[in-house]
Structures are given as C-alpha cells and as structure tokens.
Amino acid sequence: MKRFNTRNRPATFMLAVTIVFVAGIFAGKLLTAGDGSSMATINAGGLFPQAFAQKPELEGLPDVVEKVVPAVVNISSKRVVKIDPRSMHPFMRDPFFRRFFGMPDNLEQEQTSLGSGVIVSKDGYILTNNHLVEKAREVEVILPDDRRFDAEIVGSDPRSDVAVIKIDAEDLPSVPFGDTSRLRLGQVVLAIGYPYQVGQTVTMGIISALGRGGLQLVDYENFIQTDAAINPGNSGGALINSSGDLIGINTAILSRSGGSQGIGFAIPIDLARNIMEKIIKHGRVVRGWLGVSIQEVNEELAEAFDLSEVKGILVSDVEAGSPAEKGGLEPDDVIVAIQGKEVVGIREFTRDIAITEPGDRIDIEVLRNGKTRKLRVTIGERPDDVKMVQGPGESALSPLFVGVAFETLTDEHRRRLRLPARLSGVVITDVDGGSIAAEAGFERFDVITSVERTPVSDYTEFKRAIERIEDSRVLLRFFRDGRHYYLVLRK
C-alpha cells in the first residue's frame, strides 16, 4: 500500500479547500439561474468579470425557439444532371466498352439536394435558396412533425439565390418578418436548419458584419454575416433575432474544411421578402432598371473631376433610350443621393434601383460641372443581360503606353467583339502584364473612347490627345463588357 507524504498534507488540504470554495461559488450561482431569473454576477473580490452575467434579452430564448422551430422545414429536391465524361474512368469513356455492356451514350444521374426552408405564411408559402431547387424535377417538404408535402416551385431568382415554393396546406406555423434596418453589430441571433441530415438544430451567435459583399456568390450581395454555426444543409434556413422575427435566409459559409468556421452569410429578409412578393405577383422577378454604367469615386477620380470630396458614384455611360437618358442623366454626372438618401456605394445603389418597381419615379441628385442638380427619373424594367463575345485583334503602339498595342476600332472589330455600331475609338489589342496600363486595370479588347473627357474616334486622334497631355496623369474613358468606365493612368 502506498503512503502519502504527510509533510505536504497542510498545503494540499488548503489547496483543496480553496478549489471547493471557488467551485461552490460557481455551482451556487449557476444553480440560481435555473429558476428563470437573470444569472447572478460572479464577482468574488473582482476575480470574475461582469461578463458572466446573463443578458436579459436571452432569458426567453427557449420560448422563442419553441415558437419558431415548427415553421423551419427540411427540403429535399431531385434533379437529373448529365455526367461529365472527363470525370469517368477511361474504360467508361471507351465507346466499345460502353456498347459491350449496353450503356447509354448520354449518361445522366439523379442528384438529390438537401436543405432547409422557412414557412412565412399560414397558407404554405416557403422561402428558401435558389440553389436548392433550381432545375429540380420534384421538391419534397418535411415538417418538424414529420408531415410530408410535395411542393410547387412558385419562382426563383439566381441573382439573389432566393426561391419561393408552396405546399398545399392550411393553418401552418409561420415566422413573422423582422426589420433588417434595425440590425446592429453584436446583436444575438439564432440559426435554425437541418445540417448534415442529423435533424433540426438551433445554433446561437452574433451579427459579425452587415452589408457584406464582394464575395461573388450572387449578383446582388448585401449579406448579414454571423458566427452562429451554419453547416451544409442549413442553406435556406432561418436566421432570427431574440424576439423570434425572421431577419435572414441562411445561404452560404466561408470555410476551408467544409464545415462551420464562424463565417456564415444570410440574405437580409427585406431583400428576400421583396423578391418573394414580386415572384408571387408577377410569376417572376421584375427589377428596376436605370440604364447607366457606374463606378466608385476614388481619390484620383475626385481630383480629375474637381470634386471637393471623395463621395458618390460616377456615371461613366448612359444607354441610349434608357430611363436614365430620358430622365436627364449624363456621362460624367456624379450621383450623390437617391430619394433624399446619401449614396454610399455601388452595391447599395444598385440594390435600391433593382427593388424599385418599374414605373415608379425617383429623385436623383447629381453633381454636374461643380453644380448640384436634381433630376426626376422614371424607373424602367431591367432587360436581359447581353454578354460580349471576344475576338482577336492586332497592332501598333503608343509612346505613352509602353507594352500596349492599339488599333482604330473598325466594323470588323465591332462584328467580332459584338460592339455597338455607334461606338468609336481605339481598341487595345495587346497589353503586357507588367505594364503601367495593365497594373492600372486595362485589359485586351478594352476600347478607349475619350482622353481627358475629349472623345477620340480613331488612333490618330487618340495619339494626338495623348501627346497634348503635359500632366503626370491622364483620365481615360473606355468601353468593356457593354459598359463605359473611367481609369486614371499615371505616367
């Protein structure tokens, strides 16, 4: 039998008593929180911070969750996809092998997508993600009480990743819409969905960022970022506040592992609701359209346009016959306000125009030649995008643009590149990667149309305009992908 070292007993005894005493404080305080009162603050001589206190707004979360979870559903969609032959084993790609085993030439397979959705009306309308139901042959909705329904796809919008589906049922549980304009950083939120096919889960976090964009997930990005755990299967699920109001539709995560790493994104409910209402009303998403090319005003552009401060967005092009042209907008205008609200960036401005109903009239405030002008513009309906097809081109040089080749824009260029017939200028046919022009942002097949706000119709005019430049910088307007833009190039 082993003996204890009796000489260390007093010190050991005192350490044990201290541990028990501290543990007792914790146990006593934590147990008192179980009666529904606020968690008491542990502050033994300042040793434990006030942060241990339970916030009052979190006390009722279990009740809130109980009301919301019946309206968050599991969605299973099935679609048929073609198999890429390049992903197959070489034997499977061999025609003789395929004929020998009687395999069809056009290989297809059924693909199942699993995700979540939120019932937002008692008569069965459900908000979810477009990527869950896009091109689906059938969609099944499973309620938390295990009732199953075949769902109809009312409509979807790839540009925002919002979809609306409907089930044939009445008096369903639903989640009320929240107000995203009142969201604040650090606000407590809950994410509810069906991750990894383990069943419905609820996770808690805070709002980490608002207005998050530039992720290149969809065309219209204004995400709510949260650290509430969102995993595969949570897509289309609910992001709610502590009052149980729906503030977002969970849609994506940023992850290296494929699982939650504390960076999740949700579509703000004001955007999702606007799209849902348009789909239900029109059967499709009808977006407002202005007909301008715009870009952020940076310090260089502010200097080039003699602006007193860096603000607003620059109109670099106005489409012929567009609502913008009819309303009086011109190239070189700087839009500083819309409907009395200051314009803070392209993303917000584009979203505001898109959610405006075609036919509505809006007030736009611009800076033009140093003076403020107020315009009234009637919004049109956004037409389908037309993408440009690129083609080859060759040619000459410019003393200013070392490593860049130019050519007068011809009918052949317009035909190959599918450029507007009215467009004139010089086309960049080659640009070295390390050149000043490339570093500034110019690309092959960009068409330069003006130098220092003076139009150029061919290479001769362009060269003369460049030779007249005495400053260390030059303002160039160019055409790319169906739109005009500006760049400031410094010598």
What number is the mean pLDDT? 79
Main pleated-sheet profile: 6 strands, antiparallel, barrel
The total strand number stands at 26
Give the distance, in angstroms, between the N- and C-terminal Cα atoms. Answer: 88 Å
- What is the number of domains? 4
**Shape-level CATH architecture of the largest domain:** Beta Barrel
The gross shape turns out to be elongated
Task: Look at the helices and sheets and give the structural class.
Answer: alpha+beta
SSE map:
Blueprint: H1 9-32, H2 61-68, E1 72-82, H3 90-93, H4 95-100, E2 108-119, E3 125-129, H5 130-133, E4 138-142, E5 148-157, E6 162-166, E7 188-193, E8 201-212, E9 223-226, E10 238-241, E11 246-253, E12 264-268, H6 269-282, E13 288-289, E14 292-296, H7 299-304, E15 313-318, H8 323-327, E16 334-338, E17 341-342, H9 346-354, E18 361-368, E19 371-378, E20 380-381, E21 404-408, H10 411-417, E22 426-431, H11 436-440, E23 447-451, E24 454-455, H12 459-467, E25 473-480, E26 483-490
Antiparallel strand pairs: 1-2, 1-4, 2-3, 3-6, 4-5, 5-6, 7-8, 7-10, 8-9, 9-12, 10-11, 11-12, 13-20, 14-15, 15-16, 16-17, 16-18, 18-19, 21-22, 22-23, 23-24, 23-25, 25-26
